[in-house]
């Protein structure tokens, strides 16, 4: 095959014959927008040339309009067959990914003298003839992977899709030419899609005046788009156990209808309903030719800034889980089960996740599992944000992925002790808000920290002792990362979060100090920013002193021993195996404002003696 200037001469005929080509170069002679609506409003039908042949059954699977005479390199493509009723079936070239070799205005003319590709030019029954001869089951360019099997002519009574759709459950769809999801419409009824299951709902039942029933739905995707598929009654029984998230299936003979956007956030104007004729078969050799489920993880620390009802992806580790609570719903009288799980991530923040029903009952919090959630819903109560699952949500426990391993590594190194902020805490509990004055004895009497949420209070206390030996740790040198690094013993320090090795590190303060008021003492954890403020030294200065000048380090810590501060504290009971302890963290530490503290003492005296203020 020769090249005519910039173009891959003869490539269009080869593509129509099923030959796999590596990044062919063609010219666009015309681009016409296809009318549509909603999420899929702009797509373009192209007239393309390879310098020898013209072909006007090419489409862009993107919303990219290209100028006349533009020369493009097709990096990834598929071919599909559309049914044109009395005109028969036509093979369509769908361009999934491309690179502009030279813009149209810079080319300025048609290259060569291309002629319209005839039926015989496509070979094997022609580009426009019904597909009764050998043709590839699915053709993708280099950069994607073909399934490598060819469609063989069978007595199927019509084209490939007509036979596949009507051949019954015993007919294999493995070698059938498939149709991109984004090009489905209610006006076509002969198609087969090959798609990966992104999510699968549980079985839901209903009962009303019209009768009883059940259903489940699944969201599926291919290279071109995504769509929801719903099964009722018999189809629910037939396919529910068969369908598994992440697996790839051939699907044909479903009814298409406009999507109900009230219940779906998918970017598709249509959705599918299974019928009695529906056929679903697992694709055993999908390989890497099908895109995997994509996640757009939102750091937990950012959830507090999100709108209620937003749908997001989250990865975190279960720091703790409450007991399963059972109660009766007031509206329906149904027995419900609920469980609160606290998730933390590398942003050093926590969020509450609510599980219901079987999810709550079956959840195993042992060993602090990593949870990955696709499509969690943000909820709001009292100014705090929490997470819940909806029908389309997918919850995975301890998946074998790089992201999950990074979160696990962070938690085992510093994460279990570095989380102090919860986006689920109701407004008013932070350092900048008024908190209740209590003594340590009163905080213990009130059993603070034993509930589902952390508690906050403030106390005037004196620093009695500081664990200076372990007051710093070696952290990632990048400004935006504070993860503890691993000393490789070769002059390099590895950060699992950044997935990189560094010749240096930075010190981060993480100080445990024993503080006490007149009633009792308590160990309190102080993190870097607040510790630097209290010590009057940077983490780096303290770390250097601890390593090279022990006497200087001792002076730094001794300088604040026996000093009094008004501490704003966060307290929460945490469980470690069979044991528990009340962990207290300093949110703020301010010099004593004697006027305010005296007012607090006077108020206490008045309450104790019954003297009213006049």
Short description:
The chain has 614 residues and is an alpha+beta fold. Helices cover 17% and strands 40% of the residues.
Description:
The chain is an alpha+beta fold and 614 residues long. It has 13 helices and 32 strands. Strands 24, 25, 29, 30, 31 and 32 form a six-stranded antiparallel beta sheet that branches. The chain has a five-stranded mixed beta barrel with strand order 3-4-5-7-6. The chain has a five-stranded mixed beta barrel with strand order 11-13-14-16-15. Helix 11 (539-548) packs across helix 12. The radius of gyration is 32 Å and the shape is elongated.
Tally of DSSP helical segments = 13
User: In percent, how helical is the residue content?
Assistant: 10-25%
Main sheet characteristics: 6 strands, antiparallel
Indicate the overall shape: elongated
Question: In whole angstroms, how far apart are the ends?
Answer: 103 Å
How large, in whole angstroms, is the Cα Rg?
32 Å
What is the number of beta strands? 32
Class by alpha and beta content: alpha+beta
Proportion of β residues? 35-45%
Region (Disordered): 107-163
Protein name: Replication protein A subunit
Biased composition (Polar residues): 145-154
Keywords: DNA replication, DNA-binding, Metal-binding, Nucleus, Zinc, Zinc-finger
